[in-house]
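Hello,

I think I submitted the calcium ion job twice by accident. Can you confirm which output corresponds to this input? Input:
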Amino acid sequence: MKKVSFFLSFALMLLLAVCGVKADIWYSQNFDNLSNGDVAGQDGWEKTTDLTADIGSLTVQGAVFNGNSGKALKAEAMQEVRRSFDPIHTGTQFLIISFRKEDAGPDNTLHIYMGKDVHEWPAGPVLRIGKDSGGDPDKVGAHDGADRKQIATFVPGQWYQVRIVVHYDQLNYDVYFDGALVAQGFKFRTNTHDGLGWLMIGFDAGVGVLGYYDDIVMGDGDGSDYNPSAVSPEKKLAVTWGKLKL
Ligand SMILES: [Ca+2]
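Support: Only one job matched these inputs. Its output is below.
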């Protein structure tokens, strides 16, 4: 009897683990299977011409990428793209994204903006990598309401992972930089963006901008148990299995 109940418990947890994987992550993109060239027009990505008329698309390319193989998005001056999501997500949501910024002069930045349904610059959570962090070209900055606060330092030409945990029921967010908590309870730039309906990356200005984005994962919860290197279903299952045991 003991063996039977153990087996049933195991089967139930396995089922929960599989469902958990499906429920946790609602969007992911590593760009490896997209075509080289403009990302606008692929997988729902679009140029932000409603915000900046002469804006261009970021480029899918395979020369620089995160990890051992694949592709990533290249961002240059006056290039910005957005991905909208339907339905709009509320509660606690996470975004994991990797970036790499080259030392291409002091006058440039990489954006990470999130908003609800209205497309506008203020947005909700806002990260700025580079000069617009608050003045220093080697800092990552995040908005705490109207204030820009520098929260991390990066070395040009190296990949970093950012995890943003957004608490839509509290209208604030936390930022983890390569796993370390560097911002906690930062206020939205605009409180009307009380749901996650779009992600925008790139830079709508600058001279000589050069940067890259890769490995986007978005989902319900804080994402603390997600390992971006766990790409196979078996590994994802292992990650969720580990969470259930805690
Ligand atoms: Ca990739």
